[in-house]
Write a structure and sequence with these properties.
This protein is of the alpha+beta class and 136 residues long. It contains three helices and eight strands. 32% of the residues lie in helices and 27% in strands.
Length: 136
C-alpha cells in the first residue's frame, strides 16, 4: 500500500502487511513546523494542517494579497532551511506544502516485484486516497 508515499506489501493473505524501507525520516518536521507557525501567527486567516507525511500551510482565508506575499516568503524560507533535507517544498493554490522527496511509486514497488518473481504477493498501491489492489 502506498499512501503519502509509503509502500506496504504482504506475502500471503494470512501474513501481516510489511512496511518497505521507504518510510521517510520525518525529522524535517521539527524545522518546518516552527517556521510555518511563525507565518501563521503573522498572517490572520492562515493555519497549518499536519498530515502523516506532510505539513501544509493554508492561507485561503487570509487577505489575498498579503497571504500570497506571505506564501512566497514562506516558500523561500522553507527552501532555505530545508535545503539539505530529503523534502520537496511546493506552492499550490492558497497553500505551501512540504513532503518527503521520493522517486515515485513505481520505484517504491520494485522490492516487492523482485521478490514476487519467487512468491505470489498482495500489494496495495496508490497515493493519498487512490489505492490499487494488485495480486502479483
Amino acid at each position: 500500500m502506498t499512501g503519502h508515499r509509503l509502500l506496504c506489501c504482504r506475502w500471503s493473505r494470512d501474513a501481516p502487511w510489511e512496511t518497505s524501507g521507504l518510510a521517510a525520516d520525518f525529522d524535517w518536521k521539527k524545522t518546518a513546523g516552527p517556521v510555518m507557525q511563525l507565518y501563521t501567527e503573522a498572517t490572520d486567516g492562515s493555519y497549518i494542517e499536519h498530515k502523516e507525511s506532510a505539513i501544509v500551510w493554508h492561507h485561503h482565508e487570509a487577505d489575498p494579497d498579503f497571504g500570497s506575499c506571505q506564501a512566497k516568503e514562506l516558500l523561500d524560507h522553507l527552501e532555505n532551511v530545508l535545503a539539505n533535507e530529503p523534502v520537496v517544498v511546493k506552492r499550490g493554490q492558497h497553500i505551501v506544502e512540504v513532503n518527503p522527496q521520493v522517486s515515485g511509486e513505481p520505484n517504491a514497488c520494485m522490492p516487492c516485484f523482485h521478490r514476487s518473481l519467487i512468491y505470489s504477493i498482495d500489494m496495495l498501491v496508490g497515493c493519498s486516497i487512490q489505492f490499487f489492489f494488485l495480486n502479483v
